[in-house]
Design goal:
globular; about 150 residues; 6-stranded mixed beta sheet; alpha+beta
Length: about 150
């Protein structure tokens, strides 16, 4: 995986704002805060397609990641803000060989979409990035997956 340091330095401020807004909207500290479910075990089960997507990323298997998307599904993250579709999604995942992806908890956003958390480590075990994936689903497939992350 090639994570460009310059990219992270130049976008860190924007990502920090997103994280700050997210933290305020879920912490209950703002007057306009949204009450969101906790990561408690009583949470509804994660949709199977999201679990399959996460497992495919952990395995760094681009074809399996692609298989979780609808035919016109789109993958978006800060490194590909215009998004990827089709085989470009698989190629993108496959380019990350040599890293370790660990999936954390999950919850459902106020609009009902699932969100997962994750961390990425290099071969030495150094944390490279951590973030959240937001999923839009239809007919048992991912129609849009948007990742938000903090560089370390």
């Amino acid at each position: 995986m090639h994570i460009q340091g310059h990219f992270f330095r130049t976008t860190f401020a924007v990502l920090s704002v997103i994280v700050s807004i997210t933290a305020c909207s879920t912490s209950g500290t703002s007057a306009n805060a949204v009450n969101t479910p906790s990561l408690a075990p009583t949470l509804a089960p994660l949709p199977a397609i999201v679990s399959a997507y996460s497992e495919a990323w952990v395995a760094l298997d681009g074809e399996k990641v692609l298989a979780t998307f609808a035919q016109d599904g789109i993958y978006v993250d800060p490194q590909v803000p215009k998004g990827l579709t089709g085989k470009a999604i698989a190629s993108y995942v496959n380019a990350y060989k040599g890293i370790t992806v660990k999936i954390g908890g999950y919850r459902f956003l106020p609009d009902g979409r699932p969100e997962t958390t994750w961390k990425v480590y290099d071969q030495k075990g150094t944390l490279l990035a951590q973030g959240r994936d937001h999923f839009t689903l239809a007919n048992g497939k991912i129609v849009r997956m948007e990742a938000f992350f903090d560089p370390m």
